[in-house]
Amino acid sequence: MASPVPDRELKKGSAELMILALLEDRPRHGYEIAQLIELRSRGAIRFNVASLYPLLYRLEKRNWIRGRWVERPGQRRRRYYRLTASGKNVLSKQRAGWREFVEAINLITGIQHA
Amino acid sequence: MPDFKIDIRARLEELGLSPVREAEIVEELSQHLEEEYERALSCGASEEEARQQVLEQLNTPDLLGRELKHVERRAPAHPVTLGTEEKINIFADLWQDLRYAMRTLAKNPAFTSIAIIAIALGIGANTAIFSVVNAVLLRPPPFKNPEQLMMVWENATHLGFPKNTPSPPDFLDWQRQNTVFTGMAAMAERSFNLTGVGEPERLDGRRVSANLFDLLGVPALLGRTFVPDDDRSGAHVVLLSHSLWQRRFGSDPSVIGRPVILNGESYTVIGVMPRSVHLPAYGNWQDKLWVPIAFANEETTERGNHFLDVIARMKPGVGLKQAQAEMETIAARLAKQYPRSNTRIGATVTPLHEEIVGDIKPALLILLGAVGFVLLIACANVANLLLARAAAREKEIALRLALGASRFRLTRQFLTESVLLAFLGAGLGLLLALAGVRVLKTFVPSMILQIQAINIDGRVLLFTASIALLTGIVFGLAPAMHALDSNLNDSLKEGGRDPAVSRKGNQLRGLLVIGEVAVSFILLIGAGLLINSFLHLRNLDPGFRTDHLLTMKVDLSELKYPDGQRRSVFFDEALRHIRALPGVQSVAVAGNLPFTYNGDSASIAVEGIPDPPPDQWPDVIYRAIGPGYFSTMGIPVIRGRDFTDQDKADSKKVVVISEKTAQHYWPGQDPIGKRLKTGATTSHAPWREVIGVVKDVRQNDFIAQPKMQMYFDYRQLKDPAANALVVRTSVEPMSLATSVRDAIWDVDKDQPVADIDTMDHIVSEAIARQRFSMLLLGSFATLALGLAAVGIYGVMSYSVAQRTHEIGIRMALGARRTDVLQMTVKQGLRLVGIGMLVGLVAAFLLTRVMASLLYGISATDPITFLGISLVLLAVAILASYVPALRATKVDPIVALRAQ
After folding, report:
1. C-alpha distance from B388 to closest chain A C-alpha (Å)
2. Most exposed: B61, B235, B304, B891, by fewest CB within 10 Å?
3. Which pLDDT score is estimated for A112?
């Protein structure tokens, strides 16, 4: 599947931030995360299974997010990920860092805020 | 819907994940792919197109595997229940196991506390007894290089004395001729009357060679010990024991150089010995002071006078065998040189430690064995509890195994749990042992000198920790093995239970009960034998009436009362005073009360009978007594008469003999009027006419058969051999103690009166060691019986609970309650019966080691065996009856619905 993604490296660097941000409001399962990323980037960014889940597991190992199997009546059990306290910390730091970075890039390249 | 799981799993293979982890990832990813697939379908793709689209995601070559590799390989250890990692972090796992074990134990407080109490009882008993063994057997005597210290004896086995005390000339010859010892020292017991400071007191003491304390390597606490110069006759110096110094001299350091009056003579205190000095002694002799032995001239020539204890230190590099061989050579040489006294007299060398320990060793070892058995029973009980619980946890275990836990890992988890349990039990057991040691100290026979040294030290703690570890492994292994031996599939099925497995569990539980019963049977038999033997001892006829007898030592000073005449004046006056006291029926002069002293004995010559060869002189125990002794003691006079006031120092010399002596020398004849003398026919001793025959009395040894005896009138003896009084009372004897003592002090205020005691108490002290063994083994056996009963009860309860369904069916089909009761009790009794059979055979073989502790019964006494079997059977019936009763209460309908 050809991806209209800007750049692979950029995507990888920001992927953590996106996932953490998506989990800020409430727990979500992997498919939901992938859907939301695609939806909110208006199709510009897409994850496939082979890269999304290893990333989720990595975040989990770092104890930034925590996955848990949840069973709902009449449904298959699904693994929901929620943000941990240290994940929240990381998110706010990464968010600030990213903002600075983008602003710096803007200053240099003269690109205006959207 | 296509199955994506196979595709995902194929890409995970390389990673070697645990099955559980792999399953999780596969589940999560396949869900994702399925949703993508459905979305593709809903967007109008054909099934094949959708499938291709979805699989595309996995097809970036090895992307999933590569990405996951970074994450999953670095993963820390999985929970025990799930993990099968190759790499094992022992300490992390151990900590995890421990925490898990603690949680599991805390979840079952009833199980945990019962198990801990059982183990605590077992380990507590072991620790307490081991602390005694440690103090008495293992801790060396507090001397320098104690392993080099030996005692040297005269070997007169042919006379019945394999370890006899040598005479001074023999000792001096040994000392001069040997080359194996760095030094050799002699000791002789002697009592002293301490006067001049406060109340007069009779004290145990010893004459010792000047080199004794150097030989032992014990310096004085204060002042100095003896020097060779002190050993010359007439050096009046004395060393005080720590206890005497504390008690009579108020621990006053300035006592050194001060004079004290001993036996009417002045001695100078030159030193105080440390508290640790305990020398081997007979009976209750406890040294309070020491003086130089300074042999008198006549002592160094008389080879027939055996009274020395000899301690020697082997030269470095010399072994016991070598020392023994040389002493035998020297003894053989002396036998040639002095055939009259030394024919067939050898020499025996024994380690000093063995002599101090004495013959308490077999009893202690048997007790240690007994508590070992108690611990085994406790282990069996806990193993049983764990087995029952393992059965309940079967499903949990099967699940863990299915999820990939290794059997080794689970075994470790089980063992951690049981070892933790064992250590908790050991902790409580240690507290029990501390209390137990305190109790033990109060009734350990006083002849065990190390009584004060009994405590819980590092070695005891190490012992406790080791048996705790061993215990934990022993009772944890069986349930662990059993639990892991189950069939996974069946265990996992709802309500399913492999009948073969649970049968195996029941077999194991049954085996444990059989073992418990067998072991407690052995213990009970042991205790039963000791109790029976003790009853025999209690019922032994000492030959006199022990009740209402007050006894006391009244040692007259040789200086103040040098002859029979003056002694009789004192005693007559004292007797007159005592007789006047209310509550006194009669009173008499005695010499060496029964069971208080390894009394004097002599060989005798009998008129008209040729002297036997030198090595065949029979020994006759003699006692110096006064008129009225036989009637006061309650010793029947069979023929002739008692001594009277007409038998005086200057009247015809007379003697009263015992039945046994009469039978030996004058079988079938009337001995009255016959004559005998001490020593050989040619000796200077006077002939004495037999005036009476009395019943045999147990004199020196309460347990051994009475030996030949004779009695002299104390007034007709040169030596002050009469040293005690016996008072027959009409009231409780001890209530007269003070008034009798005051009556004696009315006659001579400086006369020490010692060891005021009742004869009943003296007799009970004489069998204190037997009582000690009996009480201890008895209580351990009771403990064992209790634990075994709990074990039987537990197994039967479990079995009843397991068979509720079956019992329900039986009752529904018409079985009566009595049938159920019978069936259940029978099941219990079958186990008990097998256990008793095994125990019977084992007890038959094992109780032989107790033979030396038994009196009057054999180690295979049928009455004891039968009685104990009945007791055990009764307890077993009771223990299986209670659960059986519960079985009869089963409501068939409820029972049938339960499954």
Report:
1. 34
2. B61
3. 58
**Tokens standing for residue B836:** 């008793």
What pLDDT score does B448 carry?
A: 55
Q: What is the mean pLDDT of residues A53-82?
A: 86
Q: In sequence order, which ranges of B43-160 are alpha helices (DSSP H)?
A: 47-59, 63-72, 90-107, 109-133
Report the C-alpha gap between B698 and B708 in whole angstroms.
Answer: 10
Q: Do A89 and A102 contact (CB within 8 A), yes or no?
A: no
Domain that holds residue A42: 8-109
- For residue B35, the chain A residues in CB contact (below 8 A) are 31
For residue B828, the SS3 value is helix
C-beta atoms surrounding B510 within 10 Å: 19
Does a structural domain hold residue A90? yes
pLDDT over 80 (residue B484): no
Q: Which of A48, A60, A64 should one mutate to test binding to chain B, selecting the residue with the greatest count of B CBs within 10 A?
A: A48
CA–CA–CA angle B643, B645, B650 (5° rounding): 95
Smallest Cβ–Cβ distance between B29 and the set A49, A58, A61 belongs to A49
Which of these, B313, B471, B384, B491, lies nearest to B798 by C-alpha position?
A: B384
**Phi and psi torsions of B658, nearest 5°:** -90, 165
Residue B761 to residue A56: CA distance in whole angstroms:
87
Global model pTM greater than 0.90:
no
Asked if the model's pLDDT at residue B876 lies above 80, the reply is yes
Angle at the Cα of B560 (from B556 to B562), degrees rounded to 5?
Answer: 80
Asked whether the beta carbons of B622 and B711 are under 8 A apart, the reply is: yes
Total domain count, chain A: 1
Chain B environment of A48 (Cβ under 8 Å):
56-57, 60
Return the DSSP state at B702.
S
Average pLDDT (B463-480) is 83
Q: Which of A44-48, B13-17, B430-434 has the highest mean pLDDT?
A: B430-434
* A1 in a structural domain: no
The conformation of residue B857, written as its DSSP 8-state character, comes to: S
Half-sphere exposure of B889 (CA within 13 A, CB side): 8
Torsion of CA B507, B510, B516, B521, to 10 degrees: -120
Q: Given this model, what pLDDT does residue B162 score?
A: 80
Locus of tokens 């206890």: B243
Q: Does B12 touch chain A (CB under 8 A)?
A: no
The residue whose two tokens read 């993508």 is: B36
In sequence order, what are the residues at sequence separation of 6 or more whose Cβ sits closer than 8 angstroms to the Cβ of residue B449? Answer: B278, B281, B356
Predicted pLDDT at B676: 93
Inside any domain, residue A2: no
Q: Do B24 and A61 touch (CB under 8 A)?
A: no
Structure tokens given for B282:
């007979």
CA-CA distances (angstroms) from residue B172 to B184, B335, B735, B865? 9, 15, 49, 54
In a domain, A78, yes or no: yes
As a whole number, mean pLDDT of residues B61-75 equals 67
User: Are B293 and B207 spatial neighbours (Cβ–Cβ below 8 Å)?
Assistant: yes
- d(Cα B731, Cα B548) in Å, to the nearest integer? 7
Phi, psi of A69 (to 5 degrees): -75, 130
Spatial CB neighbours of B723, under 8 Å, sequence gap ≥ 6: B553, B554, B555, B556, B590, B591, B592
The interaxial angle of helices B817-846 and B862-888, nearest 10 deg, is 150
Rounded percentage of chain A residues whose pLDDT exceeds 90: 16
CA distance B25 to chain A (A): 9
Mean pLDDT computed over B506-522: 84
Closest CA relative to residue B385, chosen from B498, B516, B522: B516
More confident residue, B15 or B496: B15
pLDDT at residue A113, as a whole number:
52
Contact (Cβ atoms closer than 8 angstroms) between residue B386 and residue B378:
no
Give the nearest chain B residue to A35 (CA atoms). Answer: B36
Report the mean per-residue pLDDT for chain B: 84
- What CATH number is given to the structural domain containing A31? 1.10.10.10
DSSP letter, residue A45: -
